Amino acid sequence: MSILFEPVRLGELQLANRIVMAPMTRSRAGSDGVPGSDMVEYYRQRASAGLIVAEGTAPSASGLGYCRTPAIYSAEQIAGWRRVTDAVHARGGRIVLQLMHVGRAASHLNKPAGAATVAPSAIRARTQLFTDSQGLVDTDVPEALSLEGIAAVIDDYRQAALNAREAGFDGVELHCTSGYLPMQFMASGSNQRTDAYGGSAQHRVRFAMEVLQAMAGAIGAGRVGVRQCPGNPYNDIDDQAPAETAAALCEAVAPLGLAYLHIMRSPQADLDAFALARTHSPQALILNDGFDGASARAALEAGEGAAVSFGRHFIANPDLVERLRNDRPLAGFDRKTLYTAGAKGYSDYPNWQASLEVSP
Ligand SMILES: Cc1cc2nc3c(=O)[nH]c(=O)nc-3n(C[C@H](O)[C@H](O)[C@H](O)COP(=O)(O)O)c2cc1C
After folding, report:
1. Is the distance from the beta carbon of residue 55 to the nearest atom of ligand 1 less than 6 Å?
2. With a cut of 70, which residues of the chain have pLDDT below it?
3. Which residues are catalytic?
């Protein structure tokens, strides 16, 4: 049997196989950040993954910034997510929630009234994002967080981790890449602070480390993971030394004993993110980006990591695990419906058997 289908334990998380579903924002939540029935069905269909990392979810109203993305700070949001986790657990799956505070990568048009757009420094991300009301708009100019503001955001993450457990999640993953708030602190371009949260790499990773510490203190380190992609420029991120910064975060969180590090390949050709993670992080690794069944198997057999995550292949292959196990061809997905509302192009992709029945 391929190593892909062997069980593995990541902290307190016991996975039936080593195929992880990577977090993917799909913009199917209600405008109030509440997951609805389409999301219940979508995740239920993908429950044969060894672990689902559910999409980036805001820990607070301020952490929202995109259209129809989910959150986990209100009782209604917790109840909505409870339906998702119940459906996944009923099929024997495991599911953690990715906590994503977008920081300055936000438009107030996608937030509840009065929710601030915050960042380490008052520097706008030179990028645009989509709003249902006005189409593409510039991101907001953020407010620089005060020290009290930083403490409050860390507390929002702590409470969100508790809320995720109340909603039935097996754990949480901190989104530390793609130019969102933790990475805005980590990168020298977006973090111009002169206090204990800015300056050296050790200071710039402090925010992410303190968030992870707070979440681990609340729900147990064995149920907390962290995601990194060293050198990712997405959302106007510019860092003077991305490898050094990523290594500093690995080393700062090493004593916490987290469940895993979810590590993506770096877009920088000269930066081997997997090797960096193996050198600087004692945590089990979930490897990501561009894998297919054969390359995932080869990476695990070579001892590069404990598990591999797949993003895009899970979009149109709800039964990806079974398809890989039986060497079935993989279906392609429709880009046009990645972020549109409703079930179309989301929870209506058939599994292998059903796809044979609908084909002429
Ligand atoms: C539609 C879409 C949405 C995504 N949303 C997120 C997200 O919310 N959080 C995150 O960390 N990565 C996100 N990603 C990145 C994926 O988790 C993954 O890293 C990427 O697709 C590369 O893996 P793959 O080659 O297996 O698709 C997203 C990717 C796609 C295609």
Report:
1. yes
2. 1, 358-360
3. 180
Ligand 1: atom nearest CA of 312 is 27
Distance (Å, rounded) from C-alpha 210 to C-alpha 140? 26
- The pLDDT of residue 1 is 66
Q: Which of 66, 312, 340, 349 to mutate to test the pocket of ligand 1 (most atoms within 8 A of CB)?
A: 312
- Sign (positive/negative) of CA torsion 104, 110, 111, 113? positive
pTM comes to 0.98
The confidence score (pLDDT) of residue 353 equals: 87
Quote the pLDDT of residue 228.
Answer: 98
Task: Supply the residue whose CA is at minimum distance from atom 25 of ligand 1.
Answer: 290
Ligand 1 within 6 A of 25 CB? yes
State which amino acid sits at residue 102: V
| 290 Cβ below 6 A of ligand 1 | yes
